[in-house]
Specification:
By secondary structure, this protein is α/β, with parallel strands linked by helices. Strands 3-2-1-4 form a four-stranded parallel sheet, with helices on both faces. The radius of gyration is 15 Å and the shape is globular. 55% of the residues lie in helices and 18% in strands. Helix 1 links the parallel strand 1 (2-6) and strand 2 (30-35). The protein has one domain (2-104): Rossmann fold, CATH 3.40.50. It has helices at 10-24, 38-48, 56-59, 76-83, 85-104, and strands spanning 2-6, 30-35, 51-54, 66-69.
Amino acid sequence: MKVAVVGIGGWGKNHLRVASLLRGEDLVDVVYAVDIDEGRLRWAEKAYGAVPVRGVENAANIDVDAAVVATPTTLHAAHASLFFPEASRRLWRSRLRQLYRRLTNC
């Protein structure tokens, strides 16, 4: 399996570590680290052997089976849709449904 971790900041570092551990268990073949910060990408490559990809616009061209989006919440939909356009729409419909139920007490 090929996994991309988008955003190698706070939570992204944890996701990257876990994805790398899964590679050690032969559950993941390739881990891509996607970020705009060159320093974080160098760290991810050195610390975990991740394949660095600068910016989500470049990540849109890589073939992945799974993606962890660990960027600011306001960017989740846009970043997720680059990898899985249909899944992103389903995710947002689900989130809107949950919000509606919470607001209407249904």
